[in-house]
Amino acid sequence: MTLHPVISAIIDRQRSLGAPGLSDGSPDDARAMLASGRDGLGGGPDMATIQDVVIPGRSGPVAARVFVPAGEVVGVMAYLHGGGWVLGALDDFDPLARTLADATRCAVVLPDYRLSPEHPFPAGLEDVEDAIVWAATAALPVARPLPLVVAGDSAGGNLATVALRRLGGTVQTALQVLIYPVTDCAFDTPSYRQHADGLPLTRRDMQWFFEQYAPQDMWASPDISPARAADVSALPPSVVITAEYDVLHSEGQSYAAQLQAAGVPTHLQTYPGVTHGFLRMHNFLDVARDAVADIASAVARGVSEPAEKPS
Length: 311
Description:
With 311 residues, the protein is α/β, with parallel strands linked by helices. The chain is 38% helix and 18% strand. The chain is built from ten helices and eight strands. The protein has helices at residues 5-17, 27-36, 38-41, 90-104, 123-137, 155-167, 190-194, 203-213, 249-261, 286-304; strands at residues 49-55, 62-68, 75-80, 106-111, 148-153, 175-179, 238-245, 266-275. It has an eight-stranded mixed β-sheet, with helices on both faces. It starts with a helix and ends in a 7-residue tail after the last helix. Residues 307-311 have low confidence and may be disordered.
């Protein structure tokens, strides 16, 4: 399928303005670029309550925001935002967290984990692990107990699945939702070759993100490249979402196949005509709205009838 006309128009406008790439400047430049797009993406639904909290972390407090939708709450979702381990603030992902809370009927915990290069690997990963444990056990303004869902996009998807593997069975999780996740440090997959340049996320951007996150001799660690883990069979039932026009498309598909081969109930969904990051366009992109609805359906199934793992 060709690029969705909405996304094509956005890319054409960025080109006409000579907009820099994410990796063309400093981390602060890229963070400012991400923040500058907030208003254009719009807001999210009203919530019953929104609370800024502090999660006790092994290296100090971790700020987070908790979104509780109106009406019955059926689960708790720890949502790990994307941004290549370098970008992303609570306000950047506030509308998406609201939208997911409203659609899934989950209380969403959005942690503000530490970012690289100021706090390189494993700082952010440790914050995420602590946030997941907190989301599973903390006294939230909802009835307990509730099933736990762990979700994340891009580098957040990476952190979600790495953290869950490292936590093992210490946190019972009904479902993991990995949205165009980073799963490997190989930059020569079919989608990397096909979509290396000209889209919102380039091969050079991804290489730059890895460079900010950790020394190159660590990239192949399964705690950075989860596809290289020897055993992923203990991971919870999974949803893996990929975008057709994304350098990460191939590795997302491969990771879904790896989970399935390990006996993890896994659903892979590829959305046509869209690029990396499309889910944040839910206010004006029909494909993103479809993806939110599909995530909500998967969460509803996962929290009501968690899939049994083979013995």
